[in-house]
Amino acid sequence: METVNFIEKFIIYIEDHIRDNIDYDGVLDDMGVEPKSFITIFTSLVGMTPYEYQVKRRMTEIAYELKAGHRRLIDIAKYYGYYDVDAFKRAYQKAFGISPYETERQMDALDLTERISFEVVPVDRPKYPSRYARIESFRITGAVRTFSLQDYDSRMKYEFLAYLERNNILDELLRYNNGSTKGIIMHERYIDGDMELTIGVASSLESPFQETYTESSEFVIFESQGIPSVTAQEIYQYIFRRWHLKESRDLNCNFSIEVLKSQRDFTSDESRVQVWQALYAEN
């Protein structure tokens, strides 16, 4: 996949079908693109999932139409696929925090989403320390959740992490962390149309938790410090917009691995964060 060019083409596709109920899995399958890889790259570059981008762009166009005032609200709602006007009003309120009738008066305060384009800048100096490593498959012991790929975004990953922390499950998991990788591992992979998220530790010990296995691969491992949910996103943007243009390596985004080295407060700007970016073997 030519990363940025493909994402820009897909944004054009979304813009051309802004009013439609897009079957993202079906469209990507027709294009021969693995959904997990696509979702990871799109979200890293755009800052939201394709579905979120479509909804925000649709609501932005609706806001412009409401402000222009050339058509009745019911006609605008139907044009954009909302045949239940009350449901449309609720969706609009959720998107902007106001009713459609308040749009003209509060237009300047709305959080509108304009069409996204990219400026790609080749990297001259590394922004994050990194190293290459060949890592064989290992077992992760932890908690597993499955999400609809269309609805999934990275916020759910950190909401799940916070839930485990609040309920002292992370402390329990760390007792089983006898593998060579130390810290909390967040592992995502695409299975049968869904996103499987595992949060756990590298372990060979018997435990009451669920388990999964990573893929053997060559990785480039980036490390930084900061609030994990923000820092990991910034590292992914760096990888896709800058790093891989200089390195010219094929990125394997069929699964994702992040390792949190801090063992307690995962909202601290002093947390150590690693992103393991898998690479396809060089020919």
UniProtKB/TrEMBL annotation:
Signal peptide: none annotated. This is Helix-turn-helix transcriptional regulator. Coiled coil: none annotated. Residues 8-106 form the HTH araC/xylS-type domain. Keywords: DNA-binding, Transcription, Transcription regulation. It comes from the Bacteria. InterPro entries: Homeodomain-like_sf, HTH_AraC, MarA-like, Reg_factor_effector_dom_sf. GO terms for molecular function: DNA-binding transcription factor activity; sequence-specific DNA binding. It comes from Salinicoccus cyprini. SMART domains: HTH_ARAC. The lineage of its organism: Bacteria, Bacillati, Bacillota, Bacilli, Bacillales. It holds the Pfam family HTH_18.
